[in-house]
Design a protein that fits this description.
alpha+beta; DNA Binding (I), subunit A; 2 domains; four-stranded mixed beta sheet; two-stranded antiparallel sheet; 5 helices; elongated
């Protein structure tokens, strides 16, 4: 398993983290510099122009402020960090790819809570109100493959 070295702004090594944790530093705009080769590109949703969001992860990242710890990654509630989730997903709906303002976005559980899904940040994505309400308790894959294609144009225009 490849890990990313996290150092403070003075260059002092602080932690080794996986790609998902490194992505959180980038999404929260805590990375102030990076060194070394690009290890991985994390891909997100598509916007209305068909452009996919991406974050390039370098092997060494310098971060500002306090480090994100196990408490942040293992928390069972993301609602206090709604803006962090929106930033992680770059304000793009995971289903239609549209870019929306904060007031038009919701948090959607990929594996629905009604079916045992958790509030863990890795089970949550940003979704526009239309997609989230149409999805109801269908799983993300079922929704996208069965329902989404029929309303995609209306979703992007609303």
């Amino acid at each position: 398993m490849s890990l990313v070295l996290v150092v403070d702004k003075g260059g002092m090594p602080k932690d080794w983290v996986n790609f998902e944790a490194a992505t959180c530093y980038y999404a929260r705009k805590k990375v102030i510099w990076q060194l070394g080769e690009k290890m991985k590109t994390m891909l997100g949703g598509h916007n209305q122009h068909g452009e996919q969001s991406r974050i390039d992860i370098s092997c060494i990242i310098g971060v500002s402020g306090p480090l994100l710890g196990d408490k942040f990654y293992n928390t069972q509630t993301v609602f206090a960090d709604r803006m962090t989730l929106y930033a992680r997903d770059q304000h793009l709906c995971a289903y239609c790819g549209g870019e929306f303002s904060t007031s038009q976005l919701t948090i959607d559980h990929v594996y629905p809570k009604s079916r045992g899904g958790s509030n863990h940040w890795s089970n949550c994505v940003t979704a526009c109100r239309t997609c989230n309400h149409r999805r109801t308790s269908l799983g993300a894959f079922l929704y996208y493959s069965r329902v989404h294609r029929s309303h995609c144009r209306r979703c992007r225009q609303s």
